Amino acid sequence: MSEFLILLLFYAIAGSAIAFYARKYGVSEHVDYFIAGRNVGGVISALTYAATTYSAFMMVGLVGLAYASGVGAVGFELLYLVGTLFLLSYYSPKIWRLSKEHNVVSPAELLSVKYGKEVAVLASIISLIALIPYTSSQVIGVSLLLEKSGALQYEVAIAVTAILIAFWALIGGLRGVAWTDALQGIIMLSAAVITVIWVYFWGFGVESEFTSQVSRLGELLYVPNKIWTPMKFAALSVPWFFFALTNPQVLQRLFIPKDPRALRRMVILFGTFGLIYTILVTFLGLELRVLTALDRFPAISYRDDVTPTLLTLMPSWLSLLVAFSIIAAAITTANSIILSLSSMISRDVVREGGLRAGQMAVVVLTILVALFAMSKPGYIVELSVLSSTILLSQLPLILGIFHWKGGKFTGIATLIAGFTTSVTLSAFKLSPAGIPASIWTFIIVFAVFFAVSQMEK
Amino acid sequence: MCSMRVLEGVVVVLAMLLPFVAFKTADLTTYIYWVAATALYLIYVALTSGRWVNE
Lengths: 457, 55
Fold this sequence. Notes:
The complex is a heterodimer of chains A (457) and B (55).
Chain A: H1 3-23, H2 30-35, H3 42-53, H4 56-69, H5 72-101, H6 107-115, H7 117-148, H8 154-204, H9 209-213, H10 230-241, H11 243-246, H12 248-251, H13 260-293, H14 306-313, H15 316-349, H16 356-374, H17 380-391, H18 395-403, H19 408-427, H20 437-455
Helix pairs in contact in A: 1-8, 3-8, 3-13, 3-15, 4-5, 4-7, 4-13, 4-15, 5-10, 5-13, 6-7, 7-8, 7-15, 7-16, 7-17, 7-19, 8-13, 8-15, 8-16, 10-17, 10-20, 14-15, 15-16, 17-19, 17-20, 19-20
Chain B: H1 3-17, H2 19-22, H3 29-48, H4 51-54
């Protein structure tokens, strides 16, 4: 048996042991199973928030994006982080309190508090449609990596990843997922630190050659340039800026801290994790691009191949660590999404008293994700952005809970308008007046929200 | 959202967009600026979020 498969087995056993241990704290009721009894400390909350947010996109997609497009990738990712900190610093205490007062468990239930159950059902369906491609992108990233490194065939890698996603979510619920997330978050950060240092000394030696050679990247070191135009930057950044409020898997994590002190710690520690991780991952992309300019690293035309290519040049122990950090990143994001979507099916669509439909949904959704991943659709970044663009349709409703009037019809009209706009423009690759789909969706959902809310009594 | 918060949001976004008009050098200035701006905002959030606990 290869080193990789032994490590994979160890990883699966360790994660399963943690998930089984989490069951001891109870997984029989919705509050326990889906949000860990609202009793998670600040550090674990922060690590699960970070591991859920930072997916395989970071070590595969963002390294490649920084390599291909330069520092614009840093700005794009850090604008997301700043936006998240801004939104969380204002809304997270309000959302945490509201969820506790109204016994809100699923993210869509938050909408039902103000707009009614029909809106929660519609929001659940839209989230399902939006997040299956996004979750598939995680599985695709991992499976391509495993295939490229020669560890597993693409289809087998999908099957292994899918089994781990469903199994840990089924056994331990959100507490199990949060604990495995915490461990994997540490693996992700450690692997990134070691990789950046290794590449630095492997590629540049000890004479700090990087800083003297970085100017070879030319216009990749500033914005705007021919890749990062202001419109491209806005198109990618707008959906991600509001990610903390529009994506159910992270919104739901605002319900889990045990008290306001834990919530505050979660936000600050997540921000710290995010800043360090983003610096490392983007710096790695720039390092590799400089090494390409120095003919020490192959020139890569397909940006998602940058990290897999790097893995083939590393010592085996390090490539194993990085590969596992990417698997960890993908699984933590994917099982959190699957569990979050399942909570919406259980609480908002089926409205069951037990957990049968929710647990069945974990299995069915994982199979759907795996099937979608088998078809290898498009680029990872574009798929992720499409999902976030669709989910923008929920933004005015979430903000409206705290600021504006509006009821059932406002909610339904806004969701339908946002979904239709984002899917139509993206599917036909339309940019009316040169404005990208994400910006159009943003404008239209707010316009529809305010127009209908004025008419609705 | 209160007007001070909206103002804070506008300032933060404008600060992050500043490299589009301010820097044109082929070195790490833009990279370092973005990292520093984010770090400063994180510190600001850490220092001002103590009120949640007392609310």
